[in-house]
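Hello Y.,

Per our agreement to keep a running log of every chain we model this quarter, I'm adding this entry. I've kept the format consistent with earlier entries: sequence first, then predicted structure.
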Amino acid sequence: MVNRVVTGAHYGLRDWLAQRVTAAVMAVYVLALAVYLLMQPGFGYDTWVYLFSGNVMRTFSMLFLLSLFYHAWIGVRDIVMDYVKPAGIRLLIHVLVILALILYVIWSVQILWGL
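Predicted structure for the entry above:
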């Protein structure tokens, strides 16, 4: 009788690199946003409206959010795979996290692009 062990798919290097790339994208976005806001003499609602009125900032914001969601998926998936041993519960958690992240992407598109 073969005792099947449920383990990961051994894509550690790809995930490690994806974590670093998404972290770099998020860091660049946060730094650029911080520099922009610190250089503004008056900070208020008008500043935010002006900043996000162009498609460039919306696009970079969407790239930031997609990077954040993918970064979160890799991290949560790895933690769940390491610490949740029953395969059924692990699958349920993975499905719930994926559904939540998909809803966050849809919500982000609605907020940024007004769709």
